[in-house]
Specification:
TTHA0802/YceI-like_sf, Lipocalin, 2 helices, 11 strands, alpha+beta, signal, Polyisoprenoid-binding protein, Lipid/polyisoprenoid-bd_YceI
């Protein structure tokens, strides 16, 4: 009896996975097929990662979560698309709880005084069908500076879990933290910060 129950459970799991795979396969990888419209950041699957060279030994990684924001995407003229992303600074995480707490403090991000980092696009240049250079203004630690992101379209389609039309991008960039007044331990911990962003957006209309 127990063996039959286990087999039934396993069969149900396989069928569920098969259904999920069929649904998740209905995505497109050609940016020209993305639907125009208003999108909102899907925070559960949007990650803002960063890394710094730590005393010349390792590239140390951290991340922010719970981002919010909007994307106005125009399929006919993608270069006219507009992006705004807000990142709660206190969401910063590393593999060290002590370092995570320090990064929120006044020596580093000072999350109490400067609770949100914001990127607002100023131009979008399409470099090939699935890639673009996005320039914009980044406000961090009370300072606003122009920054550039290299953006790659990953895929679009109906999310099989929540049935919402979703588009996803990867973006990379780099900045100097001293430009934003975050100078603690420079140059022992590198001034240059590498960014890697996984962005998911859900259609709103």
């Amino acid at each position: 009896m127990r063996r039959t129950s286990v087999l039934l459970s396993a069969t149900s799991a396989i069928l569920a996975l098969s259904t999920f795979n069929v649904a998740s396969a209905q995505t497109i990888s050609n940016a020209a097929q993305i639907k125009s419209g208003a999108y909102a950041v899907e925070p559960g699957h949007t990650q803002v990662g960063f890394s710094v060279l730590h005393f010349g030994f390792t590239n140390y990684f951290g991340a922010f979560s719970n981002a919010s924001g909007t994307l106005a995407f125009n399929a006919q003229t993608p270069a006219s698309s507009k992006l705004t992303v807000n990142i709660p600074v206190a969401s910063v995480q590393t593999t060290s709880s002590q370092l995570t707490d320090e990064l929120k403090g006044a020596q580093w991000f000072d999350a109490t005084k400067f609770p949100v980092a914001t990127f607002v696009s100023t131009s979008v240049k399409i470099t090939d069908p699935n890639n673009a250079t996005v320039q914009g203004n980044l406000t961090l630690h009370g300072v606003t500076k122009p920054e550039t992101l290299q953006v790659h379209f990953v895929g679009a389609g109906v999310n099989p879990m929540d049935k919402k039309y979703t588009i996803g991008f990867d973006a990379t960039g780099a900045l100097k933290r001293s430009d934003f007044g975050i100078k603690t331990y420079v140059p022992y911990i590198s001034d240059e910060v590498t960014l890697h962003i996984a962005g998911a957006f859900e259609k709103q209309d």
